[in-house]
Design goal:
With 288 residues, the chain is α+β, with helices and mostly antiparallel strands. It folds into 3 domains: 2-57; 75-163, no CATH class; 176-272, no CATH class. The chain is 38% helix and 28% strand. It has 6 helices and 11 strands. The strands form 2 sheets. Strands 5-6-7-8-9-10 form a 6-stranded antiparallel β-sheet, covered by helices on one side. Strands 4-3-2-1-11 form a 5-stranded antiparallel β-sheet, with helices on one face. Strand 8 and strand 9 (223-230) form a beta hairpin. The two termini are 28 Å apart.
Length: 288
């Protein structure tokens, strides 16, 4: 519990650092655009105070928020870095581990949860998902009893930088199918549920279509469960169901009945989930 609290604290500081940078940039732009000299003395004094405070905050959290923009020439180097962090975790206390791991932008909360599981179940796989000749990188864990795997995050390497394609969480789940199809199931209790399908190609997730059900306020201010289909992103499920977004003739976005929703769920599953990719993870422990 204490390590989770520390992780969240560091994330808040990372966000604060970003906010400070934005404030400084806005202040700098504002100073360049001012033309009334008589008012500048007060406003510049205020700006100087803001920048001084920002500078003080920045120096206080520099060791945490100044992330290493790690350059990896191959996934092997990425694997080596993860193995290094596993070693730090196993030989140090949680504070030391988090201080080291949080230097890297790719070390997000889902990755942190991977690290905190049993390391003898923590695995990876380098594989070409979409058949374009370029490998992607998967992280997940292997079931101790039946040998099943759970892919929890997917990355791609571009110009030496590791980019996230998707990450699982307690409310978001992913499966990878042949031909680069990615299924995204999500469940937000008392809010939103559904399934979306993406086509992964050339390092990008392209949205295909999805169905949703959520609690929405009706025109008479009553809350009700609504069902709908969309073939575009971003979509919105706020407002009444007669609003203008359904007048877009290029989109097939539409409201569904509950029966249509369940029928379409089966239809989409049959269309896209024909063959789940057979992925066998390699344990990090084996690579040490």
């Amino acid at each position: 519990m204490e390590s989770i609290k520390k992780f969240l604290m560091i994330m808040r500081k990372r966000l604060l650092f970003t906010t400070i940078i934005v404030i400084c940039m806005l202040c700098a732009c504002a100073k360049e655009e001012k033309t009334v000299a008589d008012d500048m003395s007060i406003e510049e004094g205020s700006t100087a105070t803001t920048e001084a405070a920002a500078s003080e905050e920045t120096s206080e959290i520099a060791n945490i928020a100044e992330n290493d923009v790690a350059v990896f020439h191959s996934y092997d180097e990425f694997i080596e870095k993860i193995n290094y962090l596993i070693g730090v975790m196993e030989t140090s206390d949680s504070d030391t581990f988090l201080d080291e791991a949080m230097r890297y932008e790719w070390f997000t909360y889902p990755v942190y949860l991977d690290f905190t599981k049993r390391t003898d179940q923590f695995g990876y796989l380098q594989v070409d998902i979409d058949g374009d000749g370029v490998d992607e990188f998967l992280l997940g864990d292997i079931g101790s009893e039946d040998g099943s795997y759970d892919i929890e995050s997917m990355y791609t390497l571009k110009d030496g930088i590791v980019y996230v394609v998707f990450e699982e969480s307690e409310r978001n789940f992913y499966k990878i199918y042949e031909e680069g199809i990615i299924e995204h199931n999500f469940a937000y209790p008392n809010s939103l549920y559904g399934v979306e399908y993406f086509k992964y190609t050339a390092g990008k997730q392209e949205f295909i279509e999805g169905i949703y059900n959520g609690i929405i306020r009706s025109p008479d201010d009553e809350y009700q469960i609504n069902y709908w289909y969309s073939d575009r992103l971003p979509w919105s499920y706020e407002g009444s169901w007669d609003d203008e977004r359904y007048s877009d003739s290029a989109s097939q976005e539409r409201v569904l009945t509950e029966e249509e929703y369940h029928e379409m769920w089966d239809e989409l599953e049959n269309r896209y989930c024909k063959q789940e990719m057979q992925l066998k993870l390699h344990l990090f422990k084996e690579g040490q």
